[in-house]
Amino acid sequence: MNSGDLILSERIDREILCGKKSACVLKAGLVLENPLELHRLSLHIQDVNDNSPHFNEKLIEMEISESAEKGYSFSIEEAHDADIGSNGVQRYILQANDNFILAADGSKVELTLENKLDREKQKEINLLLTALDGGSPQKSGTVVIHVTVLDANDNAPVFPQAVYKATVPENAPLKTIVVSVSATDADEGVNGDVTYQFGHMTEDVANLFSIDSRTGEITVMGTIDYEERHSFEIRVKAKDGLGLNSHAEVLIDVIDVNDNAPEIYLKSLAYVSENNKPGSTLCSISARDPDWRQNGTVIYSLIVTTRPCDESSEQLECALCVHLFLHFIYLAIK
């Protein structure tokens, strides 16, 4: 390459590379020879609106008692968009109907009962909810909300806290209990029978954790790698026997374990001549340890050894052959 142009070898997908991070930067090293120079490049990847909003389910089933009072709100799983910023989900539209209005604030989406239900007049109601992003051209996603009108289940499950926090070490054994969530329902019988499930989550996260629908225990089901992801945010849904539900957030921080050895990257070959001046650069060597902080600290040391010339040496007049052995000692300080 003589032009100095940086050419992509394959398509860059920002969502796969950086997920929801606000800044997406690719870092690379560039070695120039004659003279030897090492440069670092930072490529900032810009987001484009190439993803549509989508809901975790194509059909949302809700069961609401006809005794529900005007102004009562029902939580709806929000839509998700892999894009960020204005290209992400910006607003929602609820199809016109006689009973419900929409209340959306950030990631919180609720149906609010504007007029009381009457099971004797209408046993089922279908609502169309549309999520819109702010990109150009604008993209959208829809979900049908199917409401079954029931008799008297007037208490939703309640979590004692809105956010649960937990930690788990990377490479934790399968079935390790991370945290337990619990919600209570003031109703009796089937109306107060609470079960648990995860809200929307990507496939890779779904393969790492599971939740017991009866106990609310969240356990490890896959290999957790700190170098791939430092934390997880999971929404948990508690639902009673007739459909009323509430949500809580579970924040899981991954603890780094010193499970990676440093790797050496030889940037250029070493050339030594008898006329080399003091301070001359012989070669460029780099090492990287993917572990975090102290576990990823790399210390370099240079060991110089000498040995006498042997008879096979071309320079018979030299009294001593100097051999440089570059040894890199890596200390993961704990």
Automatic annotation (TrEMBL):
Q: Which residues form the Cadherin domain?
A: 56-159, 160-264
What membrane topology term does the record carry? Single-pass type I membrane protein
Query: Which Gene3D superfamilies does the annotation name?
Result: Cadherins
Tell where it localizes. Answer: Cell membrane
* Keyword check for Calcium: yes
A GO molecular function annotation here is: calcium ion binding
The answer to whether the entry has keyword Cell inner membrane is no
Any one biological process term the GO annotation gives:
anatomical structure morphogenesis
- Which regions form coiled coils? none
Q: Which InterPro entries match?
A: Cadherin-like_dom, Cadherin-like_sf, Cadherin_CS, Cadherin_N, Protocadherin/Cadherin-CA
Q: Which UniProt keywords apply?
A: Calcium, Cell adhesion, Cell membrane, Glycoprotein, Membrane, Repeat, Signal, Transmembrane, Transmembrane helix
What is the recorded name of this protein? Cadherin domain-containing protein
